[in-house]
C-alpha cells in the first residue's frame, strides 16, 4: 500500500468515528489565540495531534483531551509543579541559558477576606491540599475550580477566574456585557497564576524561591510587584506578622540556607530599604527608610547616601523591614485604607568574604510599586490626587520602558527608548528595564466586578511582557567580576574622587563601588578593584564600543584643552587692552585738566582784555616758584585777594596789589612774576611777561635780568607802573639787591634798556618801614627836563634813553648796590654819598613820575603805596601791570606837546627827594604816612610836595655837595 493510500484510509476511519463532544462554552478571545500549553509532566502522555493530512479533519473541531488532563499527576506536598516552560530553580543554575523570558506572575486577591487564620507554611499546605482536590489546571469546561465557582457565587460579581495555572478568564460585569457587548477574555502566558486562595508560602515557593536560590549562588535578581491600588502588592511583598510576605520569607530562606552551608565561604548580608515619593506631586524624592535614614540623592542610576544595615539573622532583617514599613508613606483612599503612596525598594545584599569567589556578590531587589489608581475608584482629591498622578506616572513610565524593550527586542532596528529617564524608580532599575538583568514581575489584581476595569487594563498592559527576554549578561560577567553587577548595588557617597584618564578613570570608581556597596574593608575593595583592572582587557573586548568611546573622550578632552588655551590667550589680551584703556583714560584726564587750566588762563586773558581801561591791577597770572620747585600759580585777578607764602618756610604770600597801581590802560597780556627761592635761602624775583617782550627776551629777562635778593625780607611790594610806551624788546628789568637786615628803606637796583627816549625807566625801591619795592617807570625825558645838564653831569645821572650806550655805565652805580651791600647805614639804597655821583633813584622820582604820567584817561589813581596794611607783614606782594602799548586803542598818547607839558608839572624840587630819602632814614614824615586810606588826590599832593622837597634837596646838594 502506498503512503497516499494509508493516509486516505486513516482519514476514512476518523470520519467514520463519532466526533468528540464539544465544550459547553466557547470563549471569545480578543487577544491572539492562546492554547493551553501541554502539561509539564514528562510522564504525561503527549496530546494527540490530529493529523493534518486530511483536510476534513482540519475542519473538524478537535476533541478536548480531557482524559489526558485527568491523568496528570498532581504535585504533592512541598513539591513544585513541574512545568515545561516554567523555569525552575534548577533551570536557573549555571547551566541555564543566558537568555530568558521575563517571568510574569499573576496573583488574584481574594474577594472576601479568608476566614481561616492563615499561617505561614501550614496554611499554604492546607491550601495546597484543598486545591489539590481540584483538578489543576482547570479547564474551560469546568470554569475553574469549585472554589472559584463558590467565590463567584458568593460575590456574584467576580470578573476574573483562573483558567489554568498560566491563564485567567476576564469576564465583564453583566451590565457591560449587555450594553457594550464585551465578552470574556482569556489572558495567558503567565509564569503562574496564583488563585485567590494562594498562600504567601505558595507564592514564595513558586515565584521567589528560585530567585533566592540564584541569589545565593551569586546571581542578582529583582522582583517587582505591580497592580491596581488595593490589589495586594504590599501584602504580597511584606505580608503581615501572620502572613509574612516575600521579603521575610526570603530572609528566612537566606539565613537558613547559609547556616547549612559548610563551605569555607563566609557570606554576610545587609539590607537597604528606601522609598521614592512625591510631595504634592512636585518632583520625586528618595528617602532612606532605615533607622537613621535621611533624604537620598540619585546620580544616574546610583543612589547616594543609602545605608546598608548588616543583618546576621532573619529576625534582624524582619525587624528592620517592619520599622521601615512604619516610616513608609501611606494614606487612606477609597480603594485601600492603608494605601502605599511611594515606591518602595528593598535590597538584600550578599557579600562573599572570600577573595577567590569573585562574582558571588549579589543583590536581590524587591520592589513594591505604588498601585495605579483611578480617581473615580479612589476618590482622591487634593494632595492624594497629586500623589495619584505621581504614582500613575511612575507606573506608566515603568510600562513604557518594558514596552520599548519588547519592541526593541522584536525589531533591533528600533532604538531602545530612554523612558527610564522619566522617573527615579526607572532610573534606578534601568538595568532591569533594559533587559540586562533578571527580573520577575508579579501582577496583583482583584477579582471583583467593580475591579473589572482596573484588572482589564493591567492584564492588557502586561500581557505582552511575557515575551520580553533579558540577556543575562550578569551571569557571564559575574564570573569575571563584571562591573555592571556592582554598579547596580547602592553606593555610599564618596568624599573625594580620583582623577584618572581613560579606562583607568573608571576602574577606581568601580573599586570604590565595590567597597562601599558591599561594606568591604579597603583591602578587600582594593582586591576587587585590582581584579576589575585586570579584567579591563576582557571588558574592552567584551565591549567593542568602549574603544570608540575612549577615543571620543580623548578627542573631546583635547578639544577642551585647545579651547581653554584660546580662552586664556584672549583673557591675557583683554587684560593688556584694559591696562591700555586705563592709561589712555589717565592721559585723557590729564589732558582735560590741562585743557581746563588753559581754558582758565584763556578766561583770565579774556577778562584782562575786557577789563576797563587802566584797570591795571587785573593781573592775569602770577607764578611763584619755591625751592622745592613747586609752582604756585596765582590768578591775579581782582577776585584773588591774596595768597600767602611764608618766605622762610618756602612758602610765599602774595596779594594783589592792583589797587596800589592805580589805573592804567588794560592790556591783554600774560605778565609773570616769578619768585623763586634758592637753596641758600635767597629769593629771587623774576619779572617777565611784558607783553611787548617777545618770548626770547622774556626768557632772558626772567633768567638773568630781574633778580631780587630779598633774603630776610619781611615784606615787599613790586609795582610796575610802566604806563609809558615800552617797546618790544626794550625792557630788561634788572633788580638785584642784598637787603641785608633791612632795617632801613632801600632801593633796589634797576636796570632797564632804553633804546628809545620815550621809554621810561623803572625804579624799584624798598622800604623797610613799608616793605615796599616799587617798580616805577619814569620818563628819562622828563628827567632830562627836570635836571639841568650840570646836575646830570655832576650827579652822574643816567643818560637819556637815546644815550643808551651810557646805560651800562649808569648801572654801575646800581651794581655797587648789588655788589656792595651796605650795612649799618639806614640809607643804603639811597646813599647820599653817591647821590652826587649816581643818577637819581627811581624811588625819588617815582611819585613825580606817577603824577607826571597823569594818565589822561584818569585810569591811574594815586595810591598810597607807602602805607600798606601792617597786617601784611611777612607778605610778599606781587603786582603787575599792563603795558598800554599792547592795546592799540588805549595806547597812551604821548605826543611831543604833552611831553613838553609834563616837565612843568613834574618839575619837582630836590627836596622832594630828600623828603623821600629822609623818610628812608627814619625821619617821621606825616606826608609819607597818610592816615587816610584814600590816597587819591591827597597822595598826589603829598607826592608833589615830596617831589618838590627832593628838588630842593638836589639843589642843596648841588650847592653844597657832600664831601
Ligand atoms: N492575598 C491576600 N490575602 C489576604 N488579604 C489580602 C491579600 N491581598 C491583599 N490583602 C489585603 O488587602 C488589603 C490591601 O492590600 P495591599 O495594601 O497589599 O494592597 P496594595 O496593592 O499594596 O495597595 P496600594 O497600592 O494602595 O498600596 C490589605 O488589608 C491586605 O491585607
UniProtKB/TrEMBL annotation:
Protein name according to UniProt: Kinesin motor domain-containing protein
Single GO term (MF): ATP hydrolysis activity
Ranges of compositional bias, category Polar residues: 39-56
GO biological process: microtubule-based movement
Domain Kinesin motor per the UniProt entry, residue ranges: 101-468
SMART domains according to UniProt: KISc
Coiled-coil stretches noted in the UniProt entry, renumbered to this chain: 567-594
Matching InterPro entries: Kinesin-like_fam (IPR027640), Kinesin_motor_dom (IPR001752)
Binding site for ATP: 227-234
Region called Disordered, residue ranges: 1-61, 73-100, 115-150
A single cellular component GO annotation: microtubule
Organism of derivation: Carya illinoinensis
